[in-house]
Amino acid sequence: MAQGLFISFEGVDGVGKSTQVKKLQEYFQSRGRRVITTREPGGTELGVQIRQMLLHGGDVDARAEALLYAADRAHHVATVIQPALDEASVVISDRYIDSSIAYQAGGRELTEDHICMLSQFATRDLWPKRTYILDLSYEQSRLRLTGEPDRLESAGELFFERTRQAFLDIAQADSKRCRVIDASQSIEEVWMQIQSDIEQLDLEDLQ
What pTM did the predictor assign? Predict the structure, then answer.
């Protein structure tokens, strides 16, 4: 019997997460798997409203921001991710818990322990089987962004560098789950590394 498989993509803005999410979706669909793609914040109707407040609203206190992300994630897991996994689907999420750790504990400088406890409570300790962290420099990231920058994209280089380093620290601390990929490579070069890694996951996850 097929089992549900949960995969997340992480990284600073402009690294190309959405492109690789699409390629991974097509990969699994070509192998007959049902695939759900989603994102945080904004993977539910409630999440869309929270996303608007967080990314395009006014200033939000750092603790309030962390709680809003956790509220979005709790609803997201309960109504989208866990039901899909229970039906043996592949779930691919553009951002998940690691983004809260990197942006709130890294960028906003709240404590990582508080963010982790909050996120684990919100998700009932649900973690992805695999997380791909796409890594890119500040200069390259700025060149790739289009349109009016959102509240996080406008936070400046120091915030960016703290967040980027936090993602790298997460990967080092959890090397079994996380894979860091140089996002300055071409789309196909990034995808080839992801595909190679996916094919090495436990066979029972891919049957």
Answer: 0.88
